[in-house]
User: Fold this.
Amino acid sequence: QVQLVESGGGVVQPGRSLRLSCTASGFTLSPYGMHWVRQAPGKGLEWVTFIWYNGTNKYADSVKGRFTISRDNSKNTLYLQMNSLRAEDTAIYYCARGAGSSAAVFDFWGQGTLVTVSS
Amino acid sequence: DIQLTQSPSFLSASVGDRVTITCRASQGVSSYLAWYQQKPGKAPKLLIFAASTLQSGVPSRFSGSGSGTEFTLTISSLQPEDFATYYCQQLNSYPLTFGGGTKVEIK
Assistant:
């Protein structure tokens, strides 16, 4: 069955970096667009970034220039490199598979990994 | 950016009730709208896409309608497992955006 497992979350100081991973199983990552979506504690959902099968990507303004999405199809793994972290980046980060012709519907989600930015 | 406004933000209902949640977009999104259900401590789950198409495995008591700027999610007969928070999401244009959520609680 389709499964997405995130890892790499933790507590990090403001201004520091963190890299999240999302390992897919039960399907081949390569033809799919993939997303990162985050949720601050007690808040709603916020789309963060997207990468197409060919590497084309998009970012929310709140993370543009600080976060980088990438993928290694040979490892069936999605990544999120987060630099210059801020307190407002504190959230659960979910990876999600994109469905449909635009890959903009999230049909499968991981369980999430918590990132806490605090001194 | 397209803003999505959900109403109500909180809803108290009983098992068996018919429940309707509204999502209004700040500009037209055609039928490029999805609905998700999220239970505490869990990831969201896709319920409906293309405004009215039920995702595989989702019970038929869930339905969606609308196009343009106004959309509704209806639960025809609320079940105990339906108590959760519901989010709409537009996929018409980037950045993808979500509504603020509607929490459905037991009356």
User: Anything to note?
Assistant: DSSP finds no helices and eleven strands in chain B.
